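User: I'm putting together notes for a lab meeting next week and I want to include a structural view of one of the chains we've been expressing. I don't have a solved structure, so I'd like a prediction I can at least talk through. The sequence is below, exactly as it appears in our construct file.
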Amino acid sequence: KIMRVSATDVDEGDNQKITYELRAENYHSNIEYFRWDEKTGEVWLNKKLEKPVSSIFVLKAIARDAGIPPKSSEIDVTVEVKESNNMPVFRQGPGAEIELSEGVVDYSNPIATYTADSQIPGDPLVYFELVNGRTEQTNKAATFRAVP
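Assistant: Thanks for the context. Below is the predicted structure for the 148-residue chain, given as structure tokens.
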């Protein structure tokens, strides 16, 4: 997964159900590089990026509710090719899954700490984000945060 677009609708019932669409703006064939889940807004690479470093994909993400008539909102999305096959190397951390007991209430101490090294020559930055979902189990209230 390379990103997730998200929208919120305060309506009730079917009207609040949102579907997502992704379109390529400049070069329509560029959409072939991406696939997305119309229900969750998650976006993945569909095939290897056969573009040079610093190439930019200009996309548009559209969120549409199920109201009658449906309402929609759109946002520009820019994807820049930084480097391929150079995922960050995690030097420290407990792994992808962390289990907590249900009664945990002390959030003053970090639950996990990760350290990663960029594998892109000349670009030491590593981006890490915890995505807030729509339910408590998916961090809806931003209980869990990534801090530098």
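A couple of points you could mention at the meeting. The CA atoms of residues 133 and 140 lie 5 Å apart. The mean pLDDT is 82.

User: Perfect, that's what I needed.
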